[in-house]
Amino acid sequence: MIREIVTYPNKILxxxxxxxxxxxxxxxxxxxxxxxxxxxxxxxxxxxxxxAVPINVLIINLxxxxxxxxxxxxxxxxxxxxxxxxxxxxYTEGCLSVPEYYxxxxxxxxxxxxxxxxxxxxxxxxxxxxxxxxxxxxxxHLKGELFIEKLSFLKRKKFEKxxxxxxxxxx
Length: 171
Ligand code: Y12
Ligand code: CO
Description:
two-stranded antiparallel sheet, binds cobalt (II) ion, 3 helices, Peptide Deformylase, binds ligand Y12, 7 strands
C-alpha cells in the first residue's frame, strides 16, 4: 500500500524515532509499504518517520551502473548506528519530504555502520560514495533532522521564503 509522505514543515518530521523491539509482521508490512511508496514517488531513500511512523527504520535503493533501481539492491535498515566516520564530501541532496528542492550538503565521505535486517540479523557494513551519503541523510531523519537544517544561514533564509510562497500557492 502506498502511504502518504509527510512534507516540511509538518512537525511530525521533528520527532525522534524509537528503537524497534519486535521484528514482526507489522514491521515487515511497514517495510513493504515504504518500498512501494518510495518507488511510486521516484525516491532512492525513505525513513519511516516520512510516512508518520516514528521508529528506527529506513530503506535505501540506489540505481545501479545501468541507472536502474533493482529490488535486489534494496537495503532495509533497522536500528542503525554509525560506528566510525572519516573524511568529508559535498553532494547535492534532495528529499521526498522537501519536494523540488535540492542543495549541497557536507557529509562524512566514509562510514562504518551497524544495523539489523527485517529478520533481526545484525550487519556491519563499510560504505562510501552515494551510499554513505544516503545512509547519513536517512539516519538524520531518525533524529528528527532534515538536510535543510545543514544549510548556511542565508541559504536557509532564502529557502524558507521560497517554501512559504510555494505552500501558499498550493492552498
Ligand atoms: C543522496 C541524497 C539524498 C538521499 C535521500 C533520498 N532522497 C530522495 O529519495 C529524493 C527523492 C526526490 C524525488 C523527487 O521526485 C522526482 O524527481 C520525480 C523529487 O522531486 C519532486 O518531488 C518534484 C525530490 C526528491 C539519498 C542519496
Ligand atoms: Co529525506
